[in-house]
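In this supplementary section we document a worked example of the pipeline. Step one takes a protein sequence of length 237 as its only input; no multiple sequence alignment statistics are reported here. Step two produces a three-dimensional model, which step three serialises into structure tokens for compact storage. The input and output of this example are shown verbatim.
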Amino acid sequence: MTTTGKNNTRLLLIDDDIELCELLVEYLATEGFSVVAVHDGESGVKAALSGNHDMVLLDVTLPKLNGFEALRQIRQRSNIPVLMLTARGDDVDRIIGLEIGADDYLPKPYNHRELVARIKAILRRGKTPVLAKGGIRTLQIDDIALNLANREATIAGEPLELTATEFLVLKSLIERAGELISRDELTQIALNRNLTLYDRAIDMHVSNVRKKIGARPDGSQRIKTVRGSGYFYILPG
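The serialised model returned by step three reads:
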């Protein structure tokens, strides 16, 4: 099932609810998106890794391969943006999805306008040019280097695989190393939306970044959590 919209943004919808997919494909086409829908996890992984799509909308409950396992397989080979569609009120699903590498989540049933807003917010993260103050094209602290021109990251000279959201989180923390950034502000910067009540998305993205960069060579931590307030990158030395 494919519907072509007015722009070149190609979405992959992975959901086993065929009737919902038909409605959603038609609606997203009116918003300018080209949409392809598949209805099981195995087909979804294959399509997501084909290079033919700009973003994935991934349901949790799928036949053949559930949404979490599909996301794991996608993340092993691709950083394509993924929006998880989860059951309303199921915080466990949301947390697991973010831990595996989803860019954001949206609980079902959702408002179609909210879905479009989330899609556009996620796509902006990957397309908006990233520039540092003073025109600096590379940010470096400790053994971490961020190339702002091509959004590539390295640690100790080795590639550091980050999603677009994780890159923005780490960039923000490094740019303002030693300065507390509130959860609200970091959500605005990295997720392009407001922080909502019981929203754990930004916390999970920071947690993912922390795991990927690990501790400093001397064993000291790099990112400090100020409970209830936010995060900051600890200045070296």
